[in-house]
Amino acid sequence: MPTPQLLHNTIATAALKRGFDQMARLLALTLGPTQGNVVIPSNLNGKPEVLNDAATIARRVLQLPDRAEDVGAMILRHLVWRMNQRAGDGSAMAAVLAQALLAEAHRVVVAGANPMLVKRGVDRAARVALAALTEQARPVRDAEDLALVAFNVVNDPNLSNALGEVYWRIGADGHVTIEEYVAPYLACELVEGGRWKGRLASPYFITNHANQCAEMDAGPIALVAGTLSALEDVQPFLELVAQTEDKRGVLIAQDIQSAALATLAANFQQGQVKVVGVELRSPDTQRRADFEDLAALTGAAVLFADLGQSPRRLTRHDLGTVRRVEAGADDVVIVGDGEHSAAVARQVQTLQARLARLPETDEGRADLTQRLARLSGQTASLKIGAYTETERAAIKQRAEKGLRALPLALREGVAPGGGVAYLNCIEAARAVPAEGDEAWGVAALARALEAPFRQLAANAGAASPGAVLAEARRQGQDYGYDAEYGEIVSMLDEDIVDPMGVLRQALEVAVSGAMMALTVETIVLHREPKTVYEP
Q: Which CATH class is domain 194-339?
């Protein structure tokens, strides 16, 4: 049995970096349209998996043989999966950036630089680079433009066209659910729906473990603008749901805790009465408005605790209905069943009238505009199918990447792809005034920004990525390497673009992960380490 160990200073950082590099080199192979495949044996059916998605590959790596190196690998594994959950795309990009940044920073630290001062320089340069990055954004022009963005993410023309069209129609605040079919199929259906800031009250309500969310089809819903803590607070709703055919429902409250939460979770896990508990996480100033919008969409009556309306007196007349609910760690999506469209229309008219009365400079316009978009927005269902489960899983994985990336493109625009947008930030990063060890951090960030371009060229088989980089810079700011055809082209003219949100978050995540690894002083190796399957 392994004994507990403490690794300090250079021993700890060297081992951590070796593990970080091992994971990064594996994931770097998947960057770009000419990415390589990684074969991983499967313990389920004995058949190997052939993967080219960085986040999925990282998730399959559970442990490295060397316990100290494993710490570094797991830091990057978590970083990559976090990038995937945030943006869908850019996981390999974040890994390449993080590895390059850690290598540059670690080199000067080994030579005697103070890691905290180096980190300070990196952080300063990163802020300037991010500002230079966002200056390159241009808006998405139409559905065809959005489809091209989707193609650069999912590399599937039919799926790209479907995603581009549906997101152009529902907008960045829309929501797309995926329905799977057992035969080749691809279609989109638009339905009404809205998104609220909220979270599952407990992980015991999760039904989709891959996406860490709960999904529930048609059922009753109750709204309580207050705290539920006792069994008696949830018992009336459980009894009402138990009388329905499917015995499932949704309970949205400000806070669900103690015996109330334990009762809901126990019933859900036992499959008797499946009530998903959701906590609305609105700011205090916006909470009443959010509950009112939910009431308009679902037809439910809001029980306000501050008005003495107790959930213990909940009746059937207080309930509303929904077509579908999806709730995760950050938000809840409610799809109305269409029976309350008149109430939604009245709420929209009220909000529009209030908005019209406000001056253009009033700070309240932003909240009203957001509420209108939510109530007037739409939700879409993406229907995908294939003959085999493996094919369906592959299509679904590509679709989920697009679903996360396209809203970012609509909100923040697009920029030259192929790592070119990062190259255009180098000059600004280098110009950050710094002295001593901070200057080394600034230089490390500037040099790391070349890494995605170089890795893309290397994956495409370029004999000298450095020479390709020099020639692209000579031809102009928007020029980069078309990895599929081995040519230097204008990325914007050839519609080789990346969502700005993906580029921005990849750089933010990479800096965060690399600096975490750089500043580790001690690694504690437990006697009996627990294997964690979730990143």
A: alpha beta
Task: Quote the pLDDT of residue 367.
Answer: 79
For the chain (535 residues), the mean pLDDT of every run of 10, in chain order, is 57 80 88 78 69 78 76 83 81 92 92 92 95 93 89 88 89 78 86 81 92 90 95 96 94 96 94 93 88 92 90 95 90 82 86 81 72 72 87 88 87 92 95 93 95 93 91 92 90 90 92 86 62 56
The alpha carbon of 88 is separated from its chain's Cα centroid by a whole number of angstroms, namely 6
327 close to 276: Cβ distance less than 8 angstroms: yes
Selection from 514, 524, 526, 528 nearest residue 123 by Cα: 514
Greatest CA separation for the chain:
74
pLDDT for the residue numbered 290: 93
pLDDT at 530: 63
Architecture of the 143-191+384-412 domain: 2-Layer Sandwich (3.30)
Conformational region of residue 461, where left means phi above 0, alpha means psi within -120 to 50, and beta covers everything else: left
Q: Which pLDDT tens digit goes with each residue over 85-114?
A: 777 788 889 999 999 999 999 999 989 899
Average pLDDT of the chain? 86
Surface-to-core class of residue 185, CB atoms within 10 Å of its CB (0-12 exposed, 13-18 middle, 19+ buried): middle
Rounded CA gap, 511 and 362, in Å? 37
Q: How many helices and strands in the chain, by DSSP H and E?
A: 19, 18
Every domain of the chain and the residues it spans: 5-114+450-525, 143-191+384-412, 194-339
What is the rounded distance in angstroms from the CA atom of residue 405 to the CA atom of residue 148? 12
Give the CATH number of domain 5-114+450-525; options: 2.30.42.10, 1.10.10.10, 3.40.50.300, 1.10.560.10. 1.10.560.10
| Dihedral sign from CA coordinates of 129, 130, 135, 139 | positive
